[in-house]
Specification:
Blueprint lengths: L5 E3 L2 E3 L1 E9 L7 E6 L20 E4 L9 H5 L23 H5 L5 E4 L1 E2 L2 H9 L2 H7 L2 E5 L7 H13 L3 E6 L5 H7 L6 E5 L5 H8 L4 H15 L5 E6 L8 H13 L4 E5 L5 H7 L14 H10 L4 E2 L2
Protein backbone atom coordinates (compact mmCIF):
# COMPACT_ATOMS: atom_id res chain seq x y z
CA UNK A 1 0.00 0.00 0.00
CA UNK A 2 1.21 3.47 -0.83
CA UNK A 3 2.43 5.23 2.31
CA UNK A 4 2.68 9.03 2.57
CA UNK A 5 3.36 11.58 5.27
CA UNK A 6 0.31 12.31 7.36
CA UNK A 7 -0.57 15.78 8.58
CA UNK A 8 -2.64 16.13 11.72
CA UNK A 9 -3.34 19.42 13.49
CA UNK A 10 -0.71 21.08 11.27
CA UNK A 11 1.93 18.62 12.51
CA UNK A 12 3.66 16.43 9.94
CA UNK A 13 4.08 12.75 10.71
CA UNK A 14 7.60 11.99 9.47
CA UNK A 15 8.70 8.86 7.75
CA UNK A 16 11.57 6.87 9.28
CA UNK A 17 13.97 5.07 6.95
CA UNK A 18 15.78 3.09 9.64
CA UNK A 19 16.60 2.84 13.31
CA UNK A 20 20.20 1.67 13.46
CA UNK A 21 21.11 0.01 16.74
CA UNK A 22 24.56 -0.46 18.28
CA UNK A 23 26.08 2.52 16.46
CA UNK A 24 29.47 3.72 17.68
CA UNK A 25 29.87 6.61 15.23
CA UNK A 26 27.00 8.97 16.07
CA UNK A 27 27.76 10.22 19.55
CA UNK A 28 29.18 8.95 22.79
CA UNK A 29 28.86 5.28 23.68
CA UNK A 30 26.53 2.75 22.07
CA UNK A 31 23.61 4.47 20.38
CA UNK A 32 20.42 3.91 18.44
CA UNK A 33 20.27 6.26 15.45
CA UNK A 34 16.88 7.33 14.12
CA UNK A 35 17.03 8.33 10.45
CA UNK A 36 14.27 10.78 9.52
CA UNK A 37 13.22 11.04 5.87
CA UNK A 38 13.32 14.53 4.39
CA UNK A 39 15.95 17.27 4.21
CA UNK A 40 15.79 20.97 3.26
CA UNK A 41 19.19 20.66 1.57
CA UNK A 42 20.12 18.60 -1.48
CA UNK A 43 23.87 18.12 -1.13
CA UNK A 44 25.38 16.49 -4.20
CA UNK A 45 27.36 14.00 -2.12
CA UNK A 46 24.70 13.14 0.48
CA UNK A 47 25.74 9.93 2.28
CA UNK A 48 22.07 9.11 2.97
CA UNK A 49 20.45 10.06 -0.36
CA UNK A 50 17.41 7.94 0.36
CA UNK A 51 16.51 10.38 3.16
CA UNK A 52 16.41 13.58 1.06
CA UNK A 53 12.88 13.09 -0.28
CA UNK A 54 10.40 13.35 2.64
CA UNK A 55 7.93 11.03 0.94
CA UNK A 56 8.01 7.30 0.47
CA UNK A 57 10.31 6.19 -2.37
CA UNK A 58 11.28 3.01 -4.16
CA UNK A 59 14.77 1.51 -4.15
CA UNK A 60 16.30 -0.98 -6.56
CA UNK A 61 19.49 -2.85 -5.67
CA UNK A 62 20.84 -4.38 -8.88
CA UNK A 63 23.42 -6.41 -6.96
CA UNK A 64 20.67 -8.23 -5.06
CA UNK A 65 18.47 -8.85 -8.09
CA UNK A 66 18.08 -12.50 -9.16
CA UNK A 67 16.30 -11.54 -12.40
CA UNK A 68 13.14 -13.59 -11.74
CA UNK A 69 11.07 -10.93 -13.55
CA UNK A 70 8.10 -11.47 -11.23
CA UNK A 71 8.19 -7.75 -10.45
CA UNK A 72 7.98 -6.84 -14.15
CA UNK A 73 5.01 -9.15 -14.65
CA UNK A 74 2.94 -7.56 -11.88
CA UNK A 75 3.62 -3.94 -12.85
CA UNK A 76 0.55 -2.84 -14.81
CA UNK A 77 2.11 0.55 -15.65
CA UNK A 78 5.27 -0.96 -17.20
CA UNK A 79 7.44 1.16 -14.91
CA UNK A 80 10.13 -1.54 -14.69
CA UNK A 81 12.49 -1.90 -17.61
CA UNK A 82 15.74 -3.96 -17.68
CA UNK A 83 17.02 -1.61 -20.39
CA UNK A 84 16.69 1.36 -18.01
CA UNK A 85 20.04 1.87 -16.19
CA UNK A 86 18.10 2.58 -12.99
CA UNK A 87 15.49 -0.14 -13.79
CA UNK A 88 12.59 1.87 -12.32
CA UNK A 89 10.90 4.61 -14.34
CA UNK A 90 9.90 6.86 -11.46
CA UNK A 91 7.77 9.04 -13.73
CA UNK A 92 5.47 6.07 -14.23
CA UNK A 93 5.77 4.40 -10.82
CA UNK A 94 2.89 5.10 -8.41
CA UNK A 95 4.57 3.37 -5.44
CA UNK A 96 1.74 0.84 -5.21
CA UNK A 97 4.14 -1.74 -3.78
CA UNK A 98 3.05 -4.65 -5.98
CA UNK A 99 6.55 -5.13 -7.39
CA UNK A 100 8.19 -5.06 -3.98
CA UNK A 101 5.76 -7.67 -2.73
CA UNK A 102 6.57 -9.87 -5.73
CA UNK A 103 10.35 -9.46 -5.43
CA UNK A 104 11.67 -12.65 -3.81
CA UNK A 105 15.23 -11.30 -3.65
CA UNK A 106 14.12 -8.06 -1.97
CA UNK A 107 16.07 -6.10 -4.55
CA UNK A 108 13.07 -3.79 -4.76
CA UNK A 109 11.86 -2.10 -1.59
CA UNK A 110 9.80 0.85 -0.46
CA UNK A 111 11.73 3.27 1.73
CA UNK A 112 10.03 5.10 4.56
CA UNK A 113 7.82 3.85 7.36
CA UNK A 114 5.42 5.74 9.58
CA UNK A 115 6.32 5.19 13.23
CA UNK A 116 4.57 6.76 16.18
CA UNK A 117 6.47 8.17 19.14
CA UNK A 118 5.34 5.10 21.07
CA UNK A 119 6.74 2.79 18.37
CA UNK A 120 10.13 4.50 18.48
CA UNK A 121 10.27 4.53 22.27
CA UNK A 122 9.40 0.82 22.40
CA UNK A 123 12.17 0.06 19.92
CA UNK A 124 14.86 2.14 21.61
CA UNK A 125 14.06 0.94 25.14
CA UNK A 126 15.19 -2.56 24.14
CA UNK A 127 18.75 -1.25 24.14
CA UNK A 128 18.62 0.87 27.28
CA UNK A 129 21.06 -1.38 29.19
CA UNK A 130 23.62 -0.80 26.43
CA UNK A 131 23.10 2.96 26.66
CA UNK A 132 23.54 2.90 30.40
CA UNK A 133 26.67 0.74 30.45
CA UNK A 134 28.40 2.72 27.67
CA UNK A 135 27.10 6.22 28.48
CA UNK A 136 25.34 6.09 25.11
CA UNK A 137 21.82 6.89 24.06
CA UNK A 138 19.74 7.90 21.05
CA UNK A 139 20.78 10.07 18.11
CA UNK A 140 18.36 11.88 15.80
CA UNK A 141 19.70 11.94 12.26
CA UNK A 142 18.47 11.83 8.70
CA UNK A 143 17.71 13.58 6.52
CA UNK A 144 16.96 16.41 8.89
CA UNK A 145 15.03 15.69 12.07
CA UNK A 146 14.35 19.40 12.70
CA UNK A 147 11.90 19.40 9.79
CA UNK A 148 9.51 17.75 12.24
CA UNK A 149 9.81 19.90 15.37
CA UNK A 150 6.44 19.07 16.91
CA UNK A 151 6.99 15.34 16.47
CA UNK A 152 10.57 15.57 17.77
CA UNK A 153 9.45 17.58 20.79
CA UNK A 154 7.04 14.80 21.77
CA UNK A 155 9.66 12.12 21.09
CA UNK A 156 12.39 13.92 23.03
CA UNK A 157 10.15 14.51 26.03
CA UNK A 158 9.47 10.77 26.16
CA UNK A 159 13.16 9.90 25.81
CA UNK A 160 14.15 12.28 28.61
CA UNK A 161 11.42 10.83 30.84
CA UNK A 162 13.25 7.51 30.39
CA UNK A 163 16.55 9.25 31.24
CA UNK A 164 18.01 8.54 27.80
CA UNK A 165 20.85 10.69 26.50
CA UNK A 166 20.00 12.41 23.18
CA UNK A 167 22.30 13.71 20.45
CA UNK A 168 21.13 15.62 17.37
CA UNK A 169 22.95 15.46 14.04
CA UNK A 170 21.86 18.47 11.98
CA UNK A 171 22.60 20.41 8.83
CA UNK A 172 21.82 23.54 10.82
CA UNK A 173 19.12 24.66 8.40
CA UNK A 174 16.15 25.23 10.71
CA UNK A 175 13.95 27.96 12.19
CA UNK A 176 15.94 29.14 15.17
CA UNK A 177 13.24 30.19 17.64
CA UNK A 178 11.08 27.10 17.10
CA UNK A 179 14.19 24.98 17.55
CA UNK A 180 15.01 26.65 20.88
CA UNK A 181 11.41 26.29 22.02
CA UNK A 182 10.72 22.71 20.99
CA UNK A 183 13.92 20.67 20.57
CA UNK A 184 16.84 22.37 22.30
CA UNK A 185 15.61 21.89 25.92
CA UNK A 186 15.83 18.10 25.59
CA UNK A 187 19.24 17.69 23.93
CA UNK A 188 22.52 16.59 25.50
CA UNK A 189 24.79 17.11 22.46
CA UNK A 190 24.58 18.71 19.01
CA UNK A 191 26.64 17.65 15.99
CA UNK A 192 26.42 20.57 13.57
CA UNK A 193 27.56 20.19 9.96
CA UNK A 194 29.18 23.16 8.23
CA UNK A 195 29.88 22.13 4.66
CA UNK A 196 30.75 25.16 2.55
CA UNK A 197 31.48 28.68 3.78
CA UNK A 198 31.01 30.59 0.53
CA UNK A 199 27.31 31.41 0.20
CA UNK A 200 27.15 31.08 -3.59
CA UNK A 201 29.01 27.76 -3.64
CA UNK A 202 26.85 26.46 -0.81
CA UNK A 203 23.71 27.19 -2.81
CA UNK A 204 25.25 25.58 -5.90
CA UNK A 205 26.25 22.32 -4.22
CA UNK A 206 23.64 22.09 -1.41
CA UNK A 207 20.58 23.74 -2.91
CA UNK A 208 20.23 26.53 -0.32
CA UNK A 209 22.37 29.42 0.85
CA UNK A 210 24.11 29.09 4.22
CA UNK A 211 23.14 32.33 5.99
CA UNK A 212 20.64 30.59 8.27
CA UNK A 213 23.12 27.80 9.03
CA UNK A 214 25.88 30.16 10.13
CA UNK A 215 23.47 32.28 12.18
CA UNK A 216 22.18 29.18 13.94
CA UNK A 217 25.69 27.98 14.74
CA UNK A 218 26.60 31.34 16.29
CA UNK A 219 23.46 31.26 18.47
CA UNK A 220 24.06 27.68 19.58
CA UNK A 221 27.74 28.35 20.31
CA UNK A 222 26.84 31.28 22.56
CA UNK A 223 24.52 29.05 24.56
CA UNK A 224 27.12 26.30 24.73
CA UNK A 225 29.62 28.81 26.11
CA UNK A 226 27.04 29.68 28.79
CA UNK A 227 27.05 26.09 29.96
CA UNK A 228 24.09 24.81 27.97
CA UNK A 229 24.08 22.10 25.27
CA UNK A 230 27.60 21.42 23.88
CA UNK A 231 28.00 21.70 20.11
CA UNK A 232 30.57 20.15 17.79
CA UNK A 233 31.12 21.49 14.27
CA UNK A 234 31.70 18.84 11.62
CA UNK A 235 33.00 19.25 8.08
CA UNK A 236 32.42 16.49 5.50
CA UNK A 237 35.51 16.29 3.30
CA UNK A 238 34.40 16.10 -0.33
CA UNK A 239 37.28 16.29 -2.84
CA UNK A 240 37.20 19.46 -4.96
CA UNK A 241 34.08 20.77 -3.18
CA UNK A 242 34.47 21.04 0.61
CA UNK A 243 37.98 19.61 1.01
CA UNK A 244 39.72 22.61 -0.51
CA UNK A 245 42.23 24.97 1.07
CA UNK A 246 40.02 28.04 0.59
CA UNK A 247 36.91 26.44 2.01
CA UNK A 248 38.52 24.77 5.02
CA UNK A 249 40.48 27.87 5.96
CA UNK A 250 37.34 30.00 5.67
CA UNK A 251 35.36 27.64 7.91
CA UNK A 252 38.24 27.52 10.40
CA UNK A 253 38.35 31.33 10.57
CA UNK A 254 34.60 31.44 11.11
CA UNK A 255 34.70 28.85 13.90
CA UNK A 256 37.59 30.57 15.65
CA UNK A 257 35.72 33.89 15.43
CA UNK A 258 32.87 32.32 17.43
CA UNK A 259 35.28 31.12 20.11
CA UNK A 260 35.18 27.53 18.93
CA UNK A 261 38.32 25.48 19.58
CA UNK A 262 37.37 22.11 18.07
CA UNK A 263 36.21 20.62 14.80
CA UNK A 264 35.49 17.15 13.47
CA UNK A 265 36.54 16.20 9.95
CA UNK A 266 34.48 13.52 8.20
CA UNK A 267 36.49 11.73 5.46
CA UNK A 268 34.73 11.24 2.15
CA UNK A 269 33.04 7.90 1.49
CA UNK A 270 32.32 7.26 -2.22
CA UNK A 271 29.99 4.32 -1.52
CA UNK A 272 27.09 6.79 -1.21
CA UNK A 273 26.87 7.01 -5.04
CA UNK A 274 25.59 3.43 -5.21
CA UNK A 275 22.88 4.33 -2.71
CA UNK A 276 21.91 7.35 -4.81
CA UNK A 277 21.51 5.19 -7.90
CA UNK A 278 19.26 2.81 -5.98
CA UNK A 279 16.71 5.58 -5.44
CA UNK A 280 17.02 6.99 -8.95
CA UNK A 281 19.33 9.90 -8.23
CA UNK A 282 22.25 10.83 -10.48
CA UNK A 283 25.62 10.59 -8.76
CA UNK A 284 27.95 12.00 -11.39
CA UNK A 285 29.01 15.46 -10.09
CA UNK A 286 31.20 14.21 -7.25
CA UNK A 287 34.30 11.96 -7.09
CA UNK A 288 34.04 8.20 -6.75
CA UNK A 289 37.36 7.59 -5.02
CA UNK A 290 38.32 7.54 -1.36
CA UNK A 291 40.03 10.55 0.18
CA UNK A 292 43.74 9.79 0.25
CA UNK A 293 45.74 9.94 3.48
CA UNK A 294 47.88 12.69 1.96
CA UNK A 295 44.81 14.78 1.16
CA UNK A 296 43.41 14.18 4.65
CA UNK A 297 46.62 15.44 6.23
CA UNK A 298 46.43 18.57 4.08
CA UNK A 299 42.85 19.12 5.22
CA UNK A 300 43.94 18.87 8.84
CA UNK A 301 46.64 21.46 8.16
CA UNK A 302 44.09 23.85 6.59
CA UNK A 303 42.09 23.97 9.84
CA UNK A 304 45.12 24.68 12.00
CA UNK A 305 44.16 26.61 15.10
CA UNK A 306 41.41 24.11 15.88
CA UNK A 307 41.75 20.81 17.73
CA UNK A 308 40.53 17.94 15.53
CA UNK A 309 38.30 15.49 17.39
CA UNK A 310 36.61 12.28 16.29
Amino acid sequence: MKNTNKKTNQTYQPLITEIKSHSLDDGKGIRSVIFFKGCPLSCEWCHNPETINPNISISYDKNACLDFKDCINVCELHALDPENPLFVNRDLCTLCGKCTDACASEALSLIGNTMSVEDIIEHTLRYQPFYKNSEGGVTLSGGEATLYMDFCEELLKSLKQKDINVTLETSGYFHQQRFFDKIYPYLDQIYFDIKIFDNILHKKHCGKDNARILENFIALKKRADDGEVPILARIPLIPDITATKDNLQAIARFLISTGETQVSLLPYNPIWSDEANKVGMPAEPTPHTWLTEEHLQKCKHYVSGLDIVN
